[in-house]
């Protein structure tokens, strides 16, 4: 069994346990990783121009665990929300009229925030921030995780409300109306360490929630919400790392709860290093797919870095809750998959990072684009060698031109402490 802290920081080798799949388990043939499709690698370092935003990096070593594009003050200019795990701060990167960004701390002593999403959780017309907190980023068995909301008073003054505490370390939370009663419920992933959980929280009103644990496994990194089986009710999926290296589906039972989870994909490689997942209709067939990376760089080897099996892949939604695995490309140390039609040609492309690469090589990939030809064949395009150790990206139209810019955050928890970044925006040049 291999154990890691929130998939980004460290693996601790233990004893390998066999995979135990539930429900419609993948066959051994399904679990074999086929080689990636042949793709033409291109270099296009001039496609985006990167610029630091927010406060200067100074002499710090940033630990930006997550960045989210959102117009928090709803002024028509897209902003970003950042989680600085080492400083335990949630910051608002507020875009000014001239395109610069003012950095505003909206939560102090936030107990190592590692993920933030933006919703109007109390239905009062302004945007609140849902924050997942690990409390301690490195391995810890204590129940120290917290889920909190930064409640907006309408003038961008935020009050911290604790929605869940004294649980295994929380890594991700998303909101949606899961039971169709008109308010937003929550899905929460808790990495823990030796123990972890996935739960959903029914909204009872007035910031009160009823919790139900639906999976007890360590290592959940991300959760996503969508109607994955096409029955008109929202389901959710969880990416579970450590010794499990699985993706679980939780189907809505349409009666105020969820069916027993099914592992819809998994790897028998105990160092597979799942690192991130997003949900999107990648092939535009009307069914939501899952895009995920494997590239967590800390494992049995003492030096973090790429592995031959690291890369970017997707699970094609075949309907009725069943999925087919496809490899997009190899990418050592792969993280943070984001899907969008970046070139406005009608098909969905994929962006990803390499957080743990061979940084002694100045030509190692840092930021990658996988451009779709419309037939789900991808060309790998290198966008940047620097900065290194990027951990998180998001994307949006930051100048109102209809073109996409990228925002990124760097986490520099390990050497080399060079070519560092904190918050950046990458604006299109073509």
From TrEMBL:
Protein name as it appears in the record: VCBS repeat-containing protein
Keyword annotations: Signal
PANTHER family given in the database record: PROPROTEIN CONVERTASE P (PTHR44103)
InterPro entries registered for this protein in UniProt: FG-GAP, Integrin_alpha_N
Stored SUPFAM superfamilies: Integrin alpha N-terminal domain
Record bears the keyword Signal: yes
Position of the signal peptide: 1-22
């Amino acid at each position: 069994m291999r154990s890691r802290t929130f998939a980004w920081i460290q693996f601790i080798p233990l004893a390998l346990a066999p995979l135990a799949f539930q429900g419609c388990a993948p066959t051994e043939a399904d679990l074999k990783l086929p080689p990636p499709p042949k793709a033409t690698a291109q270099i296009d370092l001039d496609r985006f121009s990167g610029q630091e935003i927010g406060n200067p990096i100074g002499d710090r070593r940033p630990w930006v665990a997550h960045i989210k594009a959102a117009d928090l003050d709803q002024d028509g200019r897209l902003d970003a929300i950042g989680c600085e795990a080492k400083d335990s701060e949630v910051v608002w990167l507020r875009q000014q009229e001239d395109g610069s960004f003012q950095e505003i701390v909206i939560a102090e002593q936030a107990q190592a925030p590692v993920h933030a999403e933006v919703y109007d959780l109390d239905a009062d017309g302004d945007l609140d921030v849902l924050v997942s907190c690990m409390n301690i980023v490195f391995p810890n068995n204590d129940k120290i995780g917290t889920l909190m909301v930064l409640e907006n008073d309408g003038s961008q003054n935020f009050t911290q409300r604790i929605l869940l505490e004294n649980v295994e370390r929380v890594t991700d939370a998303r909101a949606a109306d899961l039971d169709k009663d008109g308010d937003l419920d929550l899905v929460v992933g808790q990495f823990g360490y030796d123990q972890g959980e996935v739960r959903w929280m029914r909204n009872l009103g007035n910031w009160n929630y009823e919790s139900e644990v639906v999976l007890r496994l360590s290592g959940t990194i991300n959760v996503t919400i969508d109607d994955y089986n096409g029955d008109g009710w929202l389901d959710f999926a969880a990416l579970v790392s450590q010794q499990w290296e699985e993706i679980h589906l939780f189907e809505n039972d349409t009666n105020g709860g969820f069916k027993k989870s099914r592992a819809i994909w998994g790897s028998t490689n105990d160092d597979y290093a799942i690192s991130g997942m997003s949900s999107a209709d990648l092939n535009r067939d009307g069914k939501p797919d899952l895009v995920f990376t494997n590239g967590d760089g800390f494992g049995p080897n003492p030096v973090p870095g790429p592995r031959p099996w690291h890369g970017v892949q997707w699970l094609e939604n075949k309907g009725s809750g069943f999925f087919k695995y496809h490899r997009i490309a190899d990418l050592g140390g792969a993280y943070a998959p984001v899907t969008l039609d970046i070139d406005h040609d009608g098909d969905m492309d994929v962006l990803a990072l390499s957080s743990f690469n061979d940084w002694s090589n100045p030509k190692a990939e840092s930021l990658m684009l996988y451009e779709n030809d419309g037939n789900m064949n991808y060309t790998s395009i290198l966008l940047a060698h620097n900065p290194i150790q990027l951990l998180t990206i998001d994307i949006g139209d930051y100048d109102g031109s209809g073109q996409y810019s990228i925002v990124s955050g760097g986490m520099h928890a390990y050497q080399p402490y060079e070519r560092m970044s904190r918050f950046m925006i990458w604006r299109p040049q073509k």
